[in-house]
Amino acid sequence: MGIQQAPLNLHPATWAIAGIVLILSGLVLGPSFDIGVWLGILVLGWGVWRLVSWYVPQKPENRYEHHVAHHATHTKPRHAIHYLRCGNCRSIVRSTDYYCWKCGKRLR
Q: Would you list the domain boundaries of the chain?
C-alpha cells in the first residue's frame, strides 16, 4: 500500500493552525459556539497527527517496494552516448566528419 493522502492534500501545519483558529473563535464567541471548540480540537489533533506522521520515516513492506522507491528518483540516460575518436591522435570527432579536426587524418 502506501502513505495515504490527507483530505484536500494540505500541509499538516495548515490543519493545526486551522484548529487553533477554530478553538480561539469558539472561546471568543462563548457557549453558543461550543461545537467550534470541539471541532477545533479535532482539527488540531488531525494536524498534529499528520505533522508527526510526516516526519517519521516509514519502512517499506518488502524488498521490491524498497527497490522501486529507491530507483524512482535515480534516472539513467536511455542511450549511452558514444564518442568517436581519431585513430591517430585520439581526439574526439563527430561521426559525420571525414577528417580529424586536430591532426587531419582521414576518418572514413
A: 7-71, 82-108
Q: Select from 47, 54, 52, 53 the least CA-distant residue to 20.
A: 47
Report the distance separating Cα 71 and Cα 3, nearest Å.
Answer: 18
Residues 6+ apart with CB under 8 A from 85: 91, 92, 93
Residue range 14-60, pLDDT digits in tens: 888 889 998 888 888 888 888 888 899 998 998 888 888 888 877 65
> Cβ distance 46 to 18 under 8 Å?
no
Q: Which residues contact 44 (CB under 8 A, 6 or more apart)?
A: 15, 16, 19, 20, 22, 23
